[in-house]
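DATA SHEET
Item: assembly model
Revision: 1
Owner: S.N.
Input lines:
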Amino acid sequence: MGSSGEDLRGCIIELLPRLRRFARSLARNAHDADDLVQITAERALARAAQFRPDHSVASWLFGILRNAWIDEGRSSRRRRESLLEPEDLADRIGAVAAGTDPELLCLQDALSRLPEEQRLAVALVLVEGFSYKEAASIMGVPVGTLTSRLARGREALQSMLSDTPGVPS
Amino acid sequence: MTFSDEMLMAYADGELDAAARSAIEAAMASDPQIARRVAQHSALRNRFRSAFDRILDEPVPPRLLMPASGVTGTVRGKVVPLRQPRQWAWPQWTAIAASLIVGVIVGGLAMLRARAPDVVAMTGGQALAAGSLAHALSDQLAGSRSSASSVGIGVSFRSKSGQFCRTFVLRQPAALAGLACRAPQGWQIGVLARTELAGGNSGGYRQAASAMPPAVIAAVGNQTAGEPLDARAEAAARARHWQP
């Protein structure tokens, strides 16, 4: 791996906090979310040659994470429809136990009830702050599709969250 | 003029051009229903943003920094069920880190004097934690974040010589991360390195980015005698003032 590999490593390290945040909007369990980030970093480095420097590294990495979630998450997600597992601090080296924040738990819970594609749209736009165009390209769909998924996801979230504080109703 | 809900949503997300924006703003001024709907869309966005933003402040677990720092994992490009533990074992890590120098201030003493004069004291050729850093090392539990002290504690472990060691991240007076081990005279700083505080125009990474620079991770790997302390073991160590 040449200097582009080194650059890529730097970019990955810089984006780790954001990739972790994105993963947490897809996987409720923080450990599983970090597994997704780890898979993403490994895959990105293994495919460094495929990366085109004129492209946004962020979009590329978020796309890899999204695919990893879709590929590997389905079966374990089904198993995990149960309650959140208790915090296991020893298992998560140095991580702040943000999973215990009730507001975050509440939002993760609501997100987990959305269909996969709506959840991705919400995660990319509302949580990550990507533009519709960027989010659509990460999801590999036209902007119109992204917009309608986002609108449906939002509507479902608003009705799920309407009896909790934060959203005027 | 009526607007679709998707259009109001796009307005709240800052996706519309100037002409559409002013049309919606005019409608909001005359129709409280439209104003309310836009406010709901914005509120939901803000609510998600602020709850998830806290994740950016968490220290990045070392296992995630390792592949990115050039350490090759055992699994590569292979689909592995998520439930399988994917952490690197500490001994492997130690072997990798063994060739790296420990006990260095990355960037040199000049950097240290310039950037952290109040939290690190040089005593007899050794760097000891002082001020808020010393307090945090003695009192704060791992993973806790004290906005008052601006010090974050990452992970605590026992070194090969039996000392308690802890990683930390300083936000003030400079963005530094390091490793300190408890000696009779105080917290000895084994390694201290700058961390990158990438600017965040998009509400980006803020102080969280690279909370543990590779030099610190290498030092941890080189000095640790085993697994990091869990919350209980850490609280017990604090209770006996980190005496071995």
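QC remark: Residues 79-99 of chain A have pLDDT under 50 and may be disordered.
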